[in-house]
Every structure is written in C-alpha cells, then in structure tokens.
Amino acid sequence: MPTITFDGQVAECESGDNLRRVLMEKSLPLYSGVAALIHCRGMRTCGTCAVSVEGEVSPMTKIEHWRLGFPPHKRSKTSANNLRLACQCKVLGDLKLKKLQGMWGSRVLNETDH
Ligand code: FES
Q1: CA triplet 25, 41, 30: central angle to 5 degrees?
Q2: What tens digit of pLDDT does each residue of 15-68 get?
Q3: 3-state SS record for 59-78
Q4: Can you list the domains of the chain with their CATH numbers?
Q5: Ligand 1, residues 49, 60, 64, 99: which to mutate, most atoms within 8 A of Cβ?
Q6: Are 112 and 58 in contact (CB under 8 A)?
C-alpha cells in the first residue's frame, strides 16, 4: 500500500489509484488559491493540479506532456522540478509531493515571471 507524503501530511492509497483523486479524498492541498474553485476537475486542460513528484507514478501521457509545456508552464521548469499533473498520474509506489508556488504550482520562490 503506497504512502504519500505531502505538505507534512501522510496518506495511504492503493497502487494504481489516481493521484488527484487520492489527494482530493484526503483533503490534501493540491490546488493553490482560486484554482481550488476553477480547476478543470481532472479533464487535463487547466494545468493547476501540477505537483512536484518524487517516487514512482505512471508514465507521462501525451496530453500531460503537452499541458506541462503550455503557458504558464514551461518545459524547462517542468523537467527541473519533476512536475506532473496529479489528474493524469497513477500512484505506483511511495511518493513525496511538493506544491510549488503560484496558481499553477509551477513557480519556485523568488521567481516573478507569473
Ligand atoms: S485538474 Fe486540470 S489539468 Fe489536472
């Protein structure tokens, strides 16, 4: 049973569970600010469910790859920060997650470009 560590909180789920669904069910802070109200509900279009992932999840889908390279996301930052769209990931092992700054969760502290 995989363990997810996120923002100092720990949750367990079944292998193969959708990461977004797990985080929502456990009331973990997936969305930042107004994104909590206006996200696409897992339809792969908004990009606000981005989280930095350390651990084993399913391979990136084509649409996830596209969305994480589409503004305000930037491919270079996506790769450097191990960003994934939670709505597109299946949990395959223990995970450590980190939500970056900004509405899209793609900004590290001290950046000002979005
Ligand atoms: S919830 Fe919108 S892209 Fe994942």
Answers
A1: 50
A2: 999 999 999 999 999 999 999 999 999 999 999 999 999 999 999 999 999 999
A3: CCCHHHHHHCCCCCCCHHHH
A4: 3-98 (3.10.20.30)
A5: 49
A6: no
80 by DSSP, 3-state: which? helix
For the chain, the maximum distance between any two Cα atoms, rounded to a whole number of angstroms, is 39
How remote is the CA of residue 10 from the centroid of ligand 1, in Å?
22
- DSSP 8-state class, residue 107: B
Distance (Å) from CA 88 to ligand 1 centroid: 8
Encoded amino acid at 14, one letter: E
Q: Taking the model in full, what pTM does it have?
A: 0.91
**What pLDDT is recorded for position 110?**
63
Amino acid at 100: L
